[in-house]
Request: fold
Amino acid sequence: MPASAVELHHVSKRYLLGEDHAPGATLRDAITGVFRHRGWRHRGERAEIWSLRDVDLTVAAGESLGIIGRNGAGKSTLLKVLTRITEPTSGVSRTRGRVGALLEVGTGFHPELTGRENVFLNGAILGMSRQQIKREYDAIVDFSGIERFLDTPVKRYSSGMYLRLAFAVAAHLQADIMVVDEILAVGDADFQRKCLGKMAEVERSGRTVLFASHNLEAIVRLCPESIWLDRGRLLARGPSEQIVDAYLASGVSRTPTSRYDDPAEPVALRSVSVLDASGRSSAVLRRAEPFTIEVCFEVARPVPGLDLSVVLSTLRDVRVLDEAWSDSTATGRGGPGRYRARLLVPPALAVGEYTVGVWLGTAFEAVLWQEGALQFRLEGDTHGRAERLVQLSLGWEVQRVPTTDSVGQRGCDWTPPDQVGA
Ligand SMILES: Nc1ncnc2c1ncn2[C@@H]1O[C@H](COP(=O)(O)OP(=O)(O)OP(=O)(O)O)[C@@H](O)[C@H]1O
Ligand SMILES: [Mg+2]
Reply:
């Protein structure tokens, strides 16, 4: 088993509200803190908040771990505890190896020192010799793209410049553990791409990466595993794709049926439901069975050529299905009346959360588009491959070909390339 780079045992962190913010806390922390906790204090009592509660966590050396959770969940606190910017109220935090941290803009650098001096200071904190730092210096400057400002005290930097230098330092100095907190909140899209690329490189070089972010795509791309923090507690850990799905699903309540009572001008939705294989309305369905999307709508005035389509999307807005009524029925659509339309979906989609959107219109105009009409989940075995969109369980035909068999049969060409056409 590889040695662990990070170990947290029963780590809890309590803040007393009204307590001065730690030097590492940012202005944003201070401002959001005020809004989050206004009104909590009663008659001189000091309300307390547990930013972390009894967190146990082991991260193996060389592992990349994503950290997700809502605002105030404790992500930054966790990273501050393990970089020793703040002490846990109880429990033990241990790290093995040099920790290079890129926390929120506002930590890590000394404001009075210049960019150049801060690079050397950070290197020294990481235990690197001057020679070693010098060797990395050009790469840092180059990556940061702020060469002209290196002799300016960093307190005069814009937050973007600051972030560029901070990221360049964290990525190039020889830390064994790289801790990154929401780099993507600041900086332009180009620089963000550059940062993500660099992080992937750091990861490939075998260093340990801890990455807290609200950018779930980046988390999935960079970190095979993630943890999910919720109000200071470690709620789940597992493959990032699954943790992200569970996290996303927790934010929206699943409903098997949505009803509408808008006036039909000239068309209105009445209900959208998802029905399981036995016709019951349900928000959790078995992946391996067909299911039905049922749409009831009303047409008050004739809409010649009325068309209906149902769109299924993943929670990350990837359209996996867009089926139109007109694809199967050619004419005679759109007379006044009440309609019940059913679309039978075969067991083709992978395990996961889906939303249903409904579109009504004609070839010339959209009359109605109900996005996210409802959300449901397909449950089942992923066979360890949670990332696919389609799971057809197609039939295989595999034969073991006898070595004496003649070559080129049934498309399997065993002829060595130099004999082809000979
Ligand atoms: N220095 C501090 N003093 C008082 N409360 C604090 C301090 N730092 C953090 N907190 C509180 O601890 C809780 C966890 O905050 P933390 O910054 O760790 O959350 P987060 O998951 O990083 O959130 P975000 O997604 O907004 O960055 C919040 O309620 C926050 O207000
Ligand atoms: Mg944070």
In short: The pocket of adenosine-5'-triphosphate (ligand 1) is lined by residues 15, 19, 21-22, 25, 29, 33, 36, 49, 51, 69, 71-77 (CB under 6 Å). The domain at 4-251 is CATH 3.40.50.300 (Rossmann fold).
